[in-house]
Amino acid sequence: MLRSVRSWLGIAAAFGTLSFGMGGAFAQQKQVVFGLQCDRTGPTATVGTALCPGYHDYIDLVNSKGGVEGYKIKVIEVDNEYKVPPAMEAHERFKKEGALIDGLYGTPQTQALTKKLEEDKMPGTSPGFGTASAADGKRFPYLFPIAASYWSQAGAAIEFAKEKLGTLKGKKIAYLFYDNPAGKEPLPIFEDLSKSEGFELRTFAVPAPGVEMGAQVLDITSRYRPDFVVTHLFGRAPSVSIKELKGKGFPLSKVVAFVWGSAEADILAAGGYALAEGYNTLQFAGVGKDFPVLKDIVAMYKAEGKAPPKEMDSTVYYNRGVMVAAIHVEALRNAIKAKGGAMPTPDDVRKGMEQIKGFTLGGLVPPLTITPTDHEGGGWCEVWTVKGGKLVKTKDWYQGFRQVIEKQIAADAKS
Fold this sequence. Notes:
Number of helices: 14
Shape: globular
CATH class of the largest domain: Alpha Beta
CATH superfamily of the largest domain: Response regulator
CATH architecture of the largest domain: 3-Layer(aba) Sandwich
CATH topology of the largest domain: Rossmann fold
Radius of gyration: 22 Å
Low-confidence stretches: 1-27
Largest sheet: 7 strands, mixed
Strand content: 15-25%
Number of domains: 2
Oligomer: single chain
Number of strands: 12
């Protein structure tokens, strides 16, 4: 956050004050404000400390190239510590500061702020978390998942398991999840697919903070003996699950993790790539450094005489921060153009978000199209697998059981 603010202040110093002409005219660089919530000190800090720097670096990159349609972007970040009260306070601060968008962080926090976003007519984004039914833009006009929701991740995980097993009929699948609203969110999809695909589903809840799951894993491996395990864990819990499953002899090639258990940090904390060989992970943004936008960020740092930040090495989460920032910028660009260059309002940015079409950011983002009715953008996922000491893409962008997800969204709207 500090780097982004410093960067903007430097730009303001260079461009914000122009020479006094006749009559003492004074001009200032045009500026817009983005709000960003993060967790740098709470239970999911392993995510936030890499994701949020990625967000700031992309905004700095945009500002270094002149901004968006003549506007520089100032980012105000608040560490909500993965707690609801600070998240509510952060939103109020963003509103007071004139922010055009609220970059949300955390499922409980998103659920608490959903009504506030609508009351304040400010768009908020919840990429890869939050309320899955918010894909319905008519029902949730100011909330944008912008990436695969937990429902879409559930569909993607089961489709991947089906691909690996050949069939799901008569198979047993275990769902190992963090026992909070985020962990429970995918259950309707799993239950629906269990009936339609003919597999047995058993769930295993892990209480917060998710670092004790020996009993659950023992129950899975020794008693239930599933054909496949789907995990939905975050914070320190993913690394514990890898170690526990591996230690009890379950093949990690028959495990697929939701998106918050899928980073380099999780693998390293579990004991490294050799131990995690075969572990499958869902992703909603590209992994690795071989993307044009990341090379541009490296070049930006070099131009400043600085080494690229260490956070870039945590490519899973860092890249997601870049993705979220890029989508925010694209929505802003659409809003400014629609207003003929005039200062947009938060509601204009909401409309700009709904005009994003075929956005890929050079392959870092799936083929993203957001519409007034689909705020999720299609629910695309990739699968990356630990192979030979690194994460390797093993399944390109796909939508798992999309018709089931859409049916659930429609049914939820009627409930």
